[in-house]
């Protein structure tokens, strides 16, 4: 493994750990309800359903990237981070909770770090 591939692996795994930690609370309706309450988001049943569905997918995706930090998977994740950033910005512009700013900044950071490692390889 070259040092450039090693950087992709390191940043890919680090991003996977961040995603796991940031999303694990959204894997069950009970924990998602608590997390959403802390974020100031209404935790009605349809919202909790989608939060737990997405939380489960992100946690599973983070495990896949941790176990197999291949450049193609890190590239797909980097594109996903760009889209997540776009949707966070859209929600903020629509007046949603300012707590999203933290998530937006972190998505931009991880996306930029992964993109940099991918471009340098």
Give unreliable regions as ranges. Answer: none
Rg value: 15 Å
Helix content: over 70%
Which sequence of SSEs, written as H and E, runs from N to C? HHHHH
Number of helices: 5
Shape: globular
Structural class, from helix and strand content? mainly alpha
The overall pLDDT average reads 94
Number of strands: 0
* Termini gap: 11 Å
Strand count, sense and barrel status of the largest sheet are: none
The proportion of residues in beta strands is: under 5%
What does this structure look like?
With about 120 residues, the protein is an all-alpha fold. Helices cover about 80% and strands about 0% of the residues. The model has no long low-confidence stretch (mean pLDDT about 95).
Brief summary of the model shown:
With 121 residues, this protein is mainly α. It is built from 5 helices and no strands.
Index terms:
globular; 5 helices; mainly alpha
Topology at a glance:
Elements: H1 3-23, H2 29-39, H3 45-67, H4 71-93, H5 100-120
């Amino acid at each position: 493994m070259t040092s450039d591939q090693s950087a992709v692996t390191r940043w890919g795994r680090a991003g996977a750990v961040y995603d796991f930690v940031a999303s694990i609370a959204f894997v069950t309706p009970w924990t998602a309800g608590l997390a959403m309450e802390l974020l100031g988001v209404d935790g009605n049943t349809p919202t909790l359903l989608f939060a737990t569905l997405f939380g489960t997918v992100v946690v599973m995706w983070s495990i896949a990237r941790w176990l197999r930090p291949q450049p193609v998977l890190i590239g797909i994740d980097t594109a996903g981070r760009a889209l997540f950033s776009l949707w966070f910005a859209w929600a903020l512009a629509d007046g949603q909770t300012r707590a999203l700013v933290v998530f937006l900044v972190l998505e931009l950071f991880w996306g930029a770090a992964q993109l940099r490692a991918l471009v340098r390889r």
